[in-house]
Write a structure and sequence with these properties.
DUF2066, signal, Rossmann fold, single chain, six-stranded mixed beta sheet, 18 strands, 3 domains
């Protein structure tokens, strides 16, 4: 019993990790009843919000693959329901996390994981020479705006509760004057990962971010980040800048190839213009996230196509281009499949080399090899014949180019 008590006391002094788990994939959007496509517009707006929150980068919406996915937003919707907010009809949506992460991989855009730093926010407002601290339950419009925008961006904010310890632990002048020691003493009771001090003067915000745990304030040479914003969207601008900052530190681009990919081979590509036209046509398909040139052999080009939809839909869209003739698919059996299909020959080879006893263990060896070798499904390659000779590329678009790393087969 005494050992358990000592262990419990020891755990009290362990450092606490304040990272918060953010729900990335939920969104609620007001439905414009005057819009004939109100539900679709709300669904796209909700998906945009989720994409920015999950990627941490507002520029993600400009990505070509993301743009295509937005036009098919229903594909990524897991569930939805009707709601109400401020006497207005809303659409509550939950998007599929796995499908969006696959989309990010295909589009090669960053993903900001759900576990994010918790930021302690000290907000001081000046009103006619009277300065007050905004506590957790304060009736403050600017605080409400900050918290709402932080929720949109998925940046966890913690506001001091304003109890006796808070009120007696720090003065308004300490925060306004930027004194670090009292800030550290007042903040260390909160298990935050960073401390933000915001000073409000009319329409202007000035902020200082200490990107370190409260207990470390003033103990290191790490300089704080400072910034300002003004106008009606000052709160939104500040939160966006802070979110961008934290996202750049933690977001990652998943470099592995998407499982939703397909090899496609085109023959009769006998000149560079045909290649450019074909590549542009494929990239323009709504089912295509991106494509890589795998090999160029004589007049045949093989692509690895990363898909936003099913392989069947991609196949239909390629045929609808009107510039190709579909040929019979090629099936490429894998080596593991070949070995698994004929374990007898492998065992006979081992027996011949003296690796196994010839009589007593031959049958056991066959069974062993059959169990250990995994059966991998054969790889399917779509084959098409290009019939678009003489079609000129659209030079209004960015011109495609051959990757220097493309394997050229003789």
């Amino acid at each position: 019993m005494r050992k358990l008590a000592l262990l419990a006391l020891g755990l009290v002094h362990l450092p606490a990790f304040a990272f918060s788990h953010v729900d990335l994939y939920r969104s609620e959007v007001v439905v414009d009843q005057d819009d004939s496509n109100a539900e679709e517009a709300a669904r796209i707006a909700g998906m945009k919000e989720v994409i920015v929150r999950a990627s941490g980068d507002q520029n993600t919406l400009d990505n070509q693959a993301i743009q295509k996915a937005l036009s098919n937003s229903a594909h990524y919707l897991a569930q939805f329901s009707q709601g109400q907010a401020d006497d207005k009809a809303t659409l509550k949506m939950t998007f599929s996390g796995s499908q969006l992460r696959d989309l990010f991989t295909q589009a090669q855009v960053p993903f900001w994981p759900e576990n994010r730093p918790d930021v302690l926010v000290w907000l001081v407002e000046e009103n006619r020479y009277d300065r007050t601290i905004a506590w957790e339950h304060s009736d403050s419009n600017i605080l409400t705006s900050l918290l709402a925008q932080a929720k949109v961006r998925g940046l966890p904010f913690t506001v001091p509760v304003g109890d006796f310890d808070d009120i007696t632990g720090i003065e308004v002048s300490d925060l306004w004057g930027g004194f670090v020691d009292p800030l550290r003493q007042a903040s260390k009771r909160y298990q935050a990962d960073a401390v933000l001090v915001v000073k409000v003067q009319g329409p202007q915000l000035r902020w200082t971010l200490y990107d370190q745990k409260p207990i470390m304030l003033g103990q290191t040479r790490q300089a704080p980040l400072v910034g300002s914003a003004s106008g009606d969207d000052a709160a939104k601008e500040m939160v966006n800048k802070l979110s961008d900052y934290f996202a750049k530190k933690a977001a990652v681009v998943v470099a592995s190839e998407s499982s939703e990919s397909l090899k496609v081979r085109f023959s009769e590509i006998d000149d560079g213009v045909s290649f450019f036209v074909l590549e542009n046509k494929l990239k323009a398909l709504s089912s295509v996230a991106s494509l890589d040139v795998l090999t160029i052999k004589a007049d045949t080009v093989t692509f690895n196509v990363h898909l936003l939809t099913s392989a069947q839909e991609f196949e239909q869209q390629v045929n609808s281009m009107g510039l190709v003739l579909q040929l019979e698919d090629t099936v490429l059996p894998s080596q593991t499949e070949t070995a698994a299909a004929n374990p007898q020959s492998q065992v006979q080879s081992e027996l011949a080399g003296g690796a196994l006893p010839i009589e007593s263990h031959a049958q056991d060896a066959i069974s062993m090899n059959s169990a250990q070798v995994p059966v991998v499904a054969p790889e399917r390659v779509l084959n098409f014949q290009w019939q678009g000779q003489g079609v000129h590329p659209d030079f209004s678009d960015d011109q495609p180019h051959l990757d220097e790393n493309v394997e050229l087969e003789q």
